[in-house]
TrEMBL record:
<keyword id="KW-0812">Transmembrane</keyword>
<dbReference type="Pfam" id="PF15879">
    <property type="entry name" value="MWFE"/>
</dbReference>
<keyword id="KW-0472">Membrane</keyword>
<dbReference type="InterPro" id="IPR017384">
    <property type="entry name" value="NADH_Ub_cplx-1_asu_su-1"/>
</dbReference>
<keyword id="KW-1133">Transmembrane helix</keyword>
<keyword id="KW-0249">Electron transport</keyword>
<comment type="function">
    <text>Accessory subunit of the mitochondrial membrane respiratory chain NADH dehydrogenase (Complex I), that is believed not to be involved in catalysis. Complex I functions in the transfer of electrons from NADH to the respiratory chain. The immediate electron acceptor for the enzyme is believed to be ubiquinone.</text>
</comment>
<keyword id="KW-0496">Mitochondrion</keyword>
<keyword id="KW-0813">Transport</keyword>
<keyword id="KW-0999">Mitochondrion inner membrane</keyword>
<protein>
    <recommendedName>
        <fullName>NADH dehydrogenase [ubiquinone] 1 alpha subcomplex subunit 1</fullName>
    </recommendedName>
</protein>
<comment type="similarity">
    <text>Belongs to the complex I NDUFA1 subunit family.</text>
</comment>
<keyword id="KW-0679">Respiratory chain</keyword>
<feature type="transmembrane region" description="Helical">
    <location>
        <begin position="12"/>
        <end position="29"/>
    </location>
</feature>
Length: 65
């Protein structure tokens, strides 16, 4: 009876390891595709502000040169 927990721990460890691997694979693929880590909670407002900032920075750099 003392070794019964080992029978449950092995499959649980395998499942937990696979979940960790799946999460890390998503992180690596997203980072390689976009060049930066994924923003958590990034909604449409944040995307619009990033576009606005990008256009403002590009227009200010082109007008200064």
């Amino acid at each position: 009876m003392g070794w019964r927990w080992v029978e449950a721990a092995l499959p649980l460890g395998i499942i937990a390891g696979m979940l960790c691997i799946a999460g890390n694979v998503q992180y690596v693929i997203h980072t390689k595709a976009h060049g930066r880590p994924k923003h958590i909670g990034n909604d449409m407002w944040d995307v619009a502000m990033e576009r606005r900032d990008k256009t403002l920075l590009s227009s200010s750099s082109s007008s200064s040169s």
